[in-house]
Each structure stands twice: as C-alpha cells, then as structure tokens.
C-alpha cells in the first residue's frame, strides 16, 4: 500500500481521500509513476480561483479554458462571463470545478498506467 502523502504531499481534503482510494493497491513503483503523471496534469484550486477573478477585469473564461472546457470559455468571453453571473457562480464553486477536473485527470492517468502495468495495482 502506497503512502499518498509521501508521493503527493500537496493534496488535501476530498482530493486526498479520493486519490488515496485510487492508490491503495499500488506498489511503490506504480504509486511513484502515478504521482509524477498526475501531478503534471492536475490543476490547483488556487490557480482556478485566480483565473476566475480575472473574469471581473475583462478576461472572463480563462478558468474554463484551463479546465479543458473550450466551448464554455468562448461563451464566457463573448458574454462577459454570462453577464458576470457565471463568473460569480464559478467563483463560489472554484474548488468543486478543480476537484471534478482533477478526478477526471486521475482516471485518465490510471487508464494510461494500466497500459504500462497491465497486471493490476489499481482498483478502478
């Protein structure tokens, strides 16, 4: 069983618990490789907050582009963050936006690693 905090000490809250569940059956080599790939792909909630705040200064939608939601990013640019209402809602929900993106990235990382370690090590 790999120690999540040893490999990804920056995780906290719900993300920590979720990643711990994904890594519980991995050996140290698998956990280390997973941590390297996941760390490169995940987004920090504070960065999403900062990009969302830029929406009030004419750069609406940057956080949606960062989260891979290009269509919503373009919509936010064209509508000034849906008349600032969408930006305000995203400002309240920035942690859940980052969490949902990171869960998606964790599963994609796990899928990539299952090709590298085909005999298991994960519970997904």
Automatic annotation (TrEMBL):
Where is this protein localized, as stated in its record?
Answer: Membrane
What are the residue boundaries of the TM2 domain, all occurrences included?
A: 47-92
**Residues passing through the membrane, by range:** 48-67, 73-94
Q: How does it sit in the membrane?
A: Multi-pass membrane protein
So which residues are the signal peptide here? none
Q: Could you tell me which InterPro entries the record lists for this protein?
A: TM2 (IPR007829)
- What are the UniProt keywords, alphabetically? Membrane, Transmembrane, Transmembrane helix
The highest taxon in the source lineage is Bacteria
Pfam families per UniProt: TM2
User: What cellular-component terms does GO give this entry?
Assistant: membrane
Protein name listed in UniProt: TM2 domain-containing protein
